[in-house]
Every structure is written in C-alpha cells, then in structure tokens.
Write a structure and sequence with these properties.
This protein has about 240 residues and is of the alpha/beta class. It is built from 7 helices and 10 strands. It has a single domain (about 1-235), classed as Rossmann fold.
Length: about 240
C-alpha cells in the first residue's frame, strides 16, 4: 500500500484523480474497453471534479458503483445514483455502460443477482473508493465478511455508519438513514487491478490508523487494503495526523 499525504484535501483529490486517470488510460491502451468502480460521499468531491475533466475516452469505459441504500428512491438527495449521475455521468457524457445499483428494486435479491452477473464478467482496472469513520470499505461495517464469494451483498448498517451519514449532511437524523444497503464486498473490491482510496478530514484519522496499523481481520475492514499489490491511500494532513 502506497501512502500519499497532502496538506490540502483538494490537492489530495486532484492527485487521486490524476493517478486513477493514468491507470485508466494505460488499461485502454491495451484493451478495447475497461471497467472502473466509483464511490460516493464527501471524500470523493474533489476527486470526481478532477476526474471528469481528464482526457479519457469515456465511451470505452464501463462504470460500477460501490453501494446504494436499500429502499431509497433515486430522487432522494442522499441517493448514490443521484450523486453519481450529477457529479459524473452528466459531465462526461455517454459511457460504454453504467451499472447502477437499484436499491429500491421491487425484488432486491433479483437486483443483486443482476449486478453480480454484470461485474463477474468485468475485470476492474481502477476502483476509486474511500474509508468510513468506522473503518468500513463500501458499506462493509465491522465485523465485515472477508470470505464471501459474492461481488455484492445486502448488509445492515451499524450505528456509527448511520451517524456518519447524518454528520456529512445527507440526512437530518439517524432515524432517516436506511438500515440496510447493497454493498460491493471486500473480496470484490480487492480484485481491482488498482485501488485509489481517498480519505480526507480529521474525522477519518482513527480509520486511517486502522488501515495502516490494525490487524487484518473482520473487525478492521479497511486494513484489508494492505493485502493489495497496487493500492494508493490518499490522505490530507488531518486524516494522516495519527500516523505521522
């Protein structure tokens, strides 16, 4: 795991996008098309602003997104589909495909099976992800399933995770945060050829410490990143404060 630290979180986001874009272009140089994973949340704002401005033939790129709340309509301000449509899809124009997770599908298990089938046949060139305040990757809160063979799972969100969503302003109260989500599994995330993990803010300092120093087990989900051969942990001075 490569640790990259920047004073300004905007510099962190800029360099995260630049590294990821370089890897996408490299993959496109030898493949007709490539697939990537996009995350959401406050940690990805600057990264996405920079990424959409990169010189990339997006018509050759298939996009999967990391997670989505169960039961939340796409029009809801906290919908991750809405987030990615507004901050990515609407800005880059047509991509080869964008496989949104329909968390409000009438048959949720059928939806999970559909998205599992899609990603199982799509090697991932770059995964743009973050880390939660409780150390989660995607919505895999501790204790996380590190052994599953399923690319996507239905998971229950713990209290710390739900409080984070309120703290970031996506919901007015914890009671409004859905209790479950469809989440990409940690084994699936780790299959990506390159992982670019952006983690700004003092709120994430404990999670960064976990990623760098905690045992690699189900109680420390983000520590699993240390097992990946090509992972960039992108930090600002605040989030890196406990490992300096």
């Amino acid at each position: 795991m490569r640790i990259c630290m920047y004073e300004d979180p905007k510099d962190m986001g800029f360099h995260a996008a630049t590294i990821g874009a370089m890897r996408i272009r490299k993959a496109l140089a030898t493949n007709e098309s490539v697939s990537i994973i996009l995350a959401t949340g406050a940690s990805q704002f600057t990264m996405l602003e920079t990424l959409v401005a990169q010189d990339i033939d997006w018509s050759r790129v298939t996009v999967f997104h990391l997670d989505e709340y169960v039961g939340l309509d796409m029009s809801h301000p906290a919908s991750f589909r809405k987030y990615l449509k507004e901050r990515f899809s609407d800005k880059v124009g047509p991509v080869r495909a964008f496989h949104y997770i329909n968390g409000d599908a009438p048959d949720l298990q059928q939806e999970v099976s559909r998205i599992n089938g899609m990603i199982s046949s799509s090697p991932i060139a770059v995964a743009f992800i973050g880390i939660g305040e409780n150390g989660h990757l995607a919505f895999n809160d501790p204790p996380a399933d590190l052994e599953t063979k399923d690319p996507y799972l239905v998971v229950e969100l713990d209290d710390a995770c739900r409080r984070q969503q309120v703290g970031e302003g996506w919901f007015a109260s914890v009671q409004e945060v859905p209790t479950h989500a469809v989440s990409m599994s940690i084994p699936q995330i780790l299959k990506s050829a390159c992982i670019v993990c952006s983690v700004p803010d003092i709120r994430k300092a404990d999670a960064v410490y976990m990623a760098v120093h905690a045992p690699i087990d189900k109680f420390n989900p983000c520590a699993s990143l240390r097992t990946h051969a090509d992972c960039y942990l992108m930090l600002d001075s605040s989030s890196a404060s406990r490992i300096l």
